[in-house]
């Protein structure tokens, strides 16, 4: 018989994938793209993340980050909340994965279901911690400061963060199914 339950394996596959996606989404400066800015070259794109602002000429791929925040973008509450919750989520995910590894432990006869279930709850929480700022930012996408008349679209970092959050939530849920086994044994 298989020593490690399928739900635990699913959790241990989805959560590290979620971690990589949210890490990339947190660090990459592209939560929102601002393009077709009036009185600017038509191929100019501004990329706004939670830590950095970049401008790129798409025809030449000439890219400059560390742009001045003239519109007060970083002062906006959704950006500030994302700056706090995204790193907190990453730390919690790493912590949850360490606990999950201790609970699942494929090298021992029986996995520790209570420990794996607790790790699932931590990972579920970490997924929710990154889902809140990504959802809020998406909701406020049009309201955040931008040059007037420009076109605003969701950037890849926001999509990656959202997908990562969902994978962590699903992986966390899979691991919390380990509690079912504890209840059966009681």
Automatic annotation (TrEMBL):
It is found in: Cell junction, Tight junction; Cell membrane. The keyword Phosphoprotein does not apply. InterPro entries: Claudin (IPR006187), PMP22/EMP/MP20/Claudin (IPR004031). It is a multi-pass membrane protein. The keyword Transmembrane applies. It comes from the Eukaryota. One of its GO terms (cellular component) is bicellular tight junction. One of its GO terms (molecular function) is structural molecule activity. Pfam families: PMP22_Claudin (PF00822). Keywords: Cell junction, Cell membrane, Membrane, Tight junction, Transmembrane, Transmembrane helix. The chain crosses the membrane at residues 85-104, 116-136, 156-179. Belongs to the claudin family. PANTHER family: CLAUDIN. This is CLD23 protein. The gene is Cldn23.
